[in-house]
């Protein structure tokens, strides 16, 4: 345990960003305590995790200062909520793209003063961060780009626009030829909007550079994910999830380099037989809705119960990095078509039909050497919740141990979840 670890404070910076400083000032101590308990108490962590620990220590200070300074230097900052919004085009235009999904219980009460209570906690958490002025990332963005994936999100953007300029990208709900054409038009509109904000025109070379940068980040995550599939695992599921979360707010070139440094260490660990959990430790794959920072609830329960999480089939997980964009385009039109094709491979449950996702789950199940699937669904997320029916049937047909859970960010059901997870692990152990 690293007792010196501390999440830093910078009230002056927060003041400058228009935050509710009095209210936010207790947050670093709370996060410090949670991080020590959940992450730094783990045994035998890879040394190169120290970079990612530092990213957490600087989550409300150093990284925000870096973004704020870049913004003062003329770089616009765009916040997003979904992996369907193409960050390559933001990077191509010289901007900074950060994920704003909310994973904290602390901002839900702020949201519930305005929004209905019975909607997804991820939407409420993000909205509450903005209305409560308790998230420096929300305060530093110039504008946010939402999308029309689920009903909770698309209607919330109309209200969010009262607090921060909010643009919306239409994402079709099917993947037919006519939907592809609409999608490509939406990508072009997004590119034009980013160019207006950044006051630049992104030509072929700029888009090629944006694609290369984000491809490199996704490739680094692919490499890391395939190394963590080794049995016995050289890194915990919690640490992997943390890195997948940090991917949404770190500087992409540096992030990719740090992930590769960690991968090099994991290769050495595998060679030396160093692992974070012995064999046999039950290996669990998590599928379903994303877990935005600092939502570590389910992974912590699973790994505290003596299992290890070996894959996240999730947007904060493989859906974010499983596909790269073909870099061999000959002109801008082809670049945008290939970019669109790559984004259309993301198999979110907001699409119908969405059988590609079922096939993808099994592909990842095989690759990760998992022994059971826990499907994670945020409360009131109807599309993932209903899709869990098909996933369960498909798992039962293949004899794959399967459990679905529906939960939110509150700690209230932790005991109940723990009991269910333990029973599931007993089933796997036989
Ligand atoms: S591509 S999963 S990031 S939409 S969990 S807010 S769907 S009610 S997050 Fe998502 Fe894009 Fe899909 Fe991925 Fe709505 Fe469901 Fe909440 Fe969700």
From TrEMBL:
Domain of life according to the entry: Bacteria
Residue ranges that the Swiss-Prot or TrEMBL entry lists as coiled coil: 322-349
Keyword vocabulary terms for this entry: Coiled coil
UniProt-listed InterPro entries: FldB/FldC_alpha/beta, YjiM-like
Signal peptide: none
One Pfam family recorded for the sequence: HGD-D
Family named by the database record: Belongs to the FldB/FldC dehydratase alpha/beta subunit family.
UniProt cross-references to NCBIfam families, sorted A to Z: double_cubane
Name of this protein: 2-hydroxyacyl-CoA dehydratase family protein
